[in-house]
Amino acid sequence: MRATLRQAARATVHLVLAAAMAFGSYIFITVLLITATGSVAVVGIWLLPETVLLIRRIAAAKRHATASWTGREIPEAYQPITGPVRERLRTAVRDPGTLTDLRWMVAYYAYGWMTVLMLPLWPAGLVVDGVWSGLLGKEALVLPLIVKLADLEADWSAALLRPSPKALLAKRVEQLTATRADAVAAHGAELRRIERDLHDGAQARLVALSMRIGLAQRAYGADPETARKLLSDAQEQAEEALTELRHVVRGIHPPILTDRGLEGAVRALAASSTVRVTVQADGLADGPRAPAAVEAAAYFVVAEALTNSVKYSGSERAEVLLARTRTGLSVRVRDEGCGGADESRGSGLVGMRRRVAALDGAVRLTSPVGGPTVVEVELPCVW
User: Fold this and answer.
1) CA nearest 284: which of 318, 308, 306, 257?
2) What is the pLDDT of residue 250?
3) Distance between CA 235 and CA 382 in Å, rounded?
4) Are 32 and 109 a contacting pair, CB within 8 Å?
5) What's the CA gap between 374 and 313, in Å, rounded?
6) Tens digits of per-residue pLDDT, 202-254?
7) How far apart, in whole angstroms, are the C-alpha atoms of residue 221 and residue 109?
8) Residues of the chain with confidence (pLDDT) below 50
9) Is 28 exposed, middle or buried (0-12, 13-18, 19+ CB in 10 A)?
């Protein structure tokens, strides 16, 4: 009986919120009429996008309330309403999400009243179920009915508020467009970095190497000792140039990934860090390796996160978790530092997001002031 009471209480809270939203929807009819009148008269056409934004907020509140009851999120798929009035108006009218929200609102006028009528069942249910259980020893009847009604209301709302395939496709196209732009920007930044490293590092050393070899050739006949010294310097320059080239290659795709795999490469990063880093790998040894691009992205995420931890957090230790998931690869880096990580301060998080976005992945950063800082990355791939 106690479990039934608790569930019925939750259902009642859900129905109360639904009833409040139903009353609000009835009041909102006035706003819709004003918007419709202004749009027909043209002078109030600017009200239409603003009204659509209000409807989006109401629908978002309903999605949140429904998800709280059912435990299942209802996705949103809207086109951003921005820019001048003409563009805002065009987006508000053509966005498939507008039709979805209006359809839900109209339907809610029809079934929203049900939530108001069902609320008196709660006190009546306590009396009826108490008498029923006391006389016949049977289970409660009315209180489970309240739960069923809450389920029914939530199911209807979820079905009506779920974005259409067309809206989801438009949202996906928008995401891919943004991802492509980020990938192009990341690629351009990577090319500039490689060019800078080659110009300032290996190229400068190769020029110096060429000059020393030329001087050694001129001095070889007249001053063999000077020639030998120049050739010795040239050898050092050649070794330094090779070191610079290896550094550039590691920036493109670390060879250690090919040799040791992702787990081994990350453990090598942890060993070379100035903070104590523990590495845990779940399921990476089970089955095939992730694609090279995914492994490289995961490696650079860990490297960037550990670098930020050393530079900014003041933490003495960090934790790295690599896990094989059903849909891809999960990376989690945590430190116990001061927190307060800010992407606008050039901490490398923007580049990390772009690199992950190029693979259609997601980055979540949690860094309250005082710590801890947690970077979580999901990289989709097919195993």
Assistant:
1) 257
2) 59
3) 47
4) no
5) 11
6) 777 777 778 878 887 877 777 778 878 878 887 877 877 777 776 666 566 67
7) 101
8) 127-128, 131-139
9) middle
Are the C-beta atoms of residues 297 and 254 closer than 8 Å to each other?
no
pLDDT at 184: 64
The full set of domain ranges for the chain reads 2-163, 179-252, 255-380
Which single residue is written with the structure tokens 């029914």? 152
Count Cα atoms within 13 angstroms, Cβ side, for 169: 4
**110 vs 22, 62, 102, 116, CA distance in Å?**
10, 16, 13, 12
Residue among 254, 372, 368, 375 at smallest CA distance from 305: 375
Token pair recorded at residue 40: 């027909």
CATH of domain 179-252: 1.20.5
Tell me the DSSP string of 48-90. HHHHHHHHHHHHHHHHHHHHHHHS-----------SSHHHHHH
How high is the pLDDT of residue 212? 78
- Domain 255-380: give its CATH code: 3.30.565.10
pTM of the complete model: 0.54
CB 3 within 8 A of CB 141: no
> Could you give phi then psi for residue 380, rounded to 5 degrees?
-75, 140
328 forms beta bridges with 380
Phi, psi of 317, rounded to the nearest 5 degrees: -150, 160
CA gap 355, 363 in Å, rounded? 10
Burial of 212 (0-12, 13-18, 19+ CB in 10 A): buried
The amino acid at residue 193 is: R
259 vs 302: CA distance, rounded Å = 18
E runs forming strands in the chain = 276-282, 317-324, 328-335, 362-366, 373-380
Helix runs in 112-164, H state only: 113-118, 121-136, 142-161
